[in-house]
Amino acid sequence: MGRYKDTINDLIKLLDIEPNKFALRYRAEAYYLMEKYKESFNDANKLLKIETNNEWPSKLSAKIIEKEI
Predict the structure, then answer these.
(1) From CA 41, how far away is CA 43, in angstroms rounded?
(2) Residue 9 CB partners (closer than 8 Å, separation 6+)
(3) In which element (H, E) is residue 22 found?
(4) 7: closest CA among 28, 21, 33, 27?
């Protein structure tokens, strides 16, 4: 679990310096793996706004919604 926290902290720093879709995706995935579904869902939605043709954020959002029910 500690590695995910370190990864998220690094990705937050990277996104503060230069927003990019790759860091956003990996942060969403790390949040998901840590069961921080709200944060993961928010990042997936941000990514979907950037990449409207990318199916990954939609699939992740659907998985989160299923877990929350």
Answers:
(1) 6
(2) none
(3) helix 21-33
(4) 27
Domains and CATH numbers, the chain: 2-68 (1.25.40.10)
Give pLDDT tens digits for 52-68.
Answer: 999 999 999 999 999 87
Catalogue the long-range contacts made by 2-8 (C-beta closer than 8 Å, 24 or more residues apart).
4/30, 4/33, 4/34, 5/34, 8/34
CA 41, 43, 46, 50 dihedral sign is: negative
Q: Provide φ and ψ at 62, rounded to 5°.
A: -65, -40
